[in-house]
Write a structure and sequence with these properties.
Elements: E1 36-40, E2 55-57, E3 63-66, E4 71-76, E5 81-84, H1 88-92, E6 97-106, E7 127-129, E8 146-154, E9 157-164, E10 167-175, E11 182-189, E12 192-197, E13 200-204, E14 212-215, E15 220-221, E16 235-244, H2 250-258, E17 282-286, H3 296-299, E18 310-311, E19 321-342, E20 352-362, E21 367-374, E22 387-390, E23 393-409, E24 418-426
Parallel strand pairs: 8-14
Antiparallel strand pairs: 1-16, 2-5, 3-4, 4-16, 5-15, 6-11, 6-16, 7-8, 8-9, 9-10, 11-12, 12-13, 17-19, 18-24, 19-22, 19-23, 19-24, 20-21, 20-23
């Protein structure tokens, strides 16, 4: 019997990646099709470029490698995975029609498993997106009705699988040799998956016997459950994992493949926002600062010794957690963040931090994480390759008190992390269609 997969609930951590990948041609990228609800661009972080389902490294250490578009994540098929912050209810909502598309470069083969609406032979597949157990947090009246849908990619083909109690099978399987990057799209309508490879439809599978199926993206890579011989995970590289709340058309999928290394166009990430909700916030506590004015972090106009920069204390060891706490005049409802930083040298980590963690205290509550992410150093952005820009979206949070931590990378004199700007934007319904 296939046991139920139970994922832990992660602290809110979700975003919209907003800078253009280094080296991508701004004239060759393709506009993202409408309906994207999750997009792991994997540009040196685990942020969600379509919404606020930002991820964390949930295994023994996902690494970043040269991808099909910018950078990609590398997983070993055993104990590495990205865990997007998505609820069971959010996954189960995508049940009428949906699409999962991604680039993959697998290094291991799929096991034998005949296409079927029953059975458990897909248990050891190289899952790029693991199919959620259909009964996980099923609301009243939906027990034993649903199956989650995932996509596996091996050197010998693709499987679109379903998962629930005593059921883990390939609803669609297409065998072919895959030796390099391949663009995969799985379109599901009427509980039946269609497989597209490199922009072309190649196979239609069988319909699930369950009442409904839904898109799963709570685990990218190996699921990490070792019972029953293990569930499996893709070994190799994964890039541009995107989930849509509708069936993409043939022309749309062909265009995504044709964009190649330019990929989908990403919105601009601004280093300074004039509508910053934290502008003129009152700093209530902070660790040692070289700057004489911590409020420069929120306005970037008057900090010293360097304009537009807050520099944390120097001469501290590697791993030092630098922090600042502040409050706004009145409560605000935030929907996205803006983070800009700079290191002294593109070939070292001077003035860099390797993790950023931001918390908010909701009214009447305690501090809770709203964004927690590793930072790859050296930063490798900007004209001089020594800047960091991030514009993540977050689950809307209503708060007045905030706290940020930056983990120093490297040790020595003049080593405190340098933060150019830390902004927050009011939640705006204009984000509802994802790309305006």
């Amino acid at each position: 019997m296939i046991t139920a997969l139970r994922k832990s609930h992660l602290a809110p951590t979700l975003l919209c990646l907003a800078w253009t990948a280094v080296g991508a041609s701004p004239t060759a990228c393709v506009a993202p099709p409408a309906g994207a609800v999750y997009w792991l661009a994997a540009e040196r972080n685990f942020d969600d470029s379509a919404g606020y389902h930002n991820g964390t490294d949930g295994g023994t250490g996902v690494t970043f490698v040269a991808g099909k578009v910018g950078t990609a994540i590398h997983v070993d098929g055993v104990a590495t995975r990205v865990l997007p912050d998505v609820t069971y209810a959010e996954e189960r909502a995508l049940r009428t029609a949906f699409t999962v598309e991604l680039w993959a470069r697998p290094t291991t083969a799929m096991p034998d498993c005949s296409e079927s609406s029953s059975g458990t032979c897909a248990q050891h597949m190289p899952w790029a997106t693991f199919p959620e157990h259909g009964d996980d947090s099923a609301p009243p009246g939906e027990a034993n009705l649903a199956a989650g849908i995932g996509v596996a990619v091996g050197t010998n083909g693709v499987c679109v699988g379903q998962h629930t109690s005593s059921l883990l099978s390939c609803l669609a399987r297409y065998d072919t040799t895959i030796s390099d990057w391949v663009h995969v799209a799985a379109v599901v309508e009427n509980k039946t998956p269609r497989i597209y490879l490199n922009g072309l439809p190649v196979h239609t599978g069988v319909a699930s016997a369950r009442d409904f199926v839904f898109a799963s993206w709570s685990v990218i890579g190996d699921v990490g459950i070792q019972c029953c011989g293990g569930y499996g995970g893709l070994a190799g590289d994964i890039d541009e994992v995107t989930v849509y709340d509708r069936a993409l058309g043939d022309a749309e999928i062909a265009a995504l493949f044709a964009a190649g290394s330019a990929g989908k166009c990403k919105p601009e990430c601004l280093a300074e926002h004039t509508d910053d909700a934290w502008q003129h916030a009152t700093v209530t506590d902070h660790t040692a600062l070289v700057s004489s004015d911590a409020s420069g972090m929120f306005g970037a106009t008057n900090s010293s010794p360097e304009v537009n920069t807050t520099i944390f204390g120097d001469n501290l060891p590697d791993g030092t957690v630098h922090s600042v706490t502040w409050q706004t005049a009145t409560p605000v409802t935030l929907g996205s963040l803006g983070i800009a930083a700079m290191q002294d040298d593109a070939n070292s980590t001077k003035r860099a931090f390797r993790r950023v963690h931001i918390e908010a205290r909701e009214l009447g509550g305690s501090f809770a994480s709203i964004y927690d992410s590793p930072v790859l150093v050296p930063y490798g952005q900007g004209a001089e390759q020594r800047e960091l820009f991030r514009c993540p979206r977050i689950r809307p949070v209503h708060a007045q008190e905030f706290h940020a931590e930056f983990v120093q990378d490297g040790a020595g004199s003049f080593w405190g992390p340098r933060v150019i700007e830390l902004d927050a934007l009011i939640h705006d319904p204009i984000f509802a269609d994802d790309f305006d």
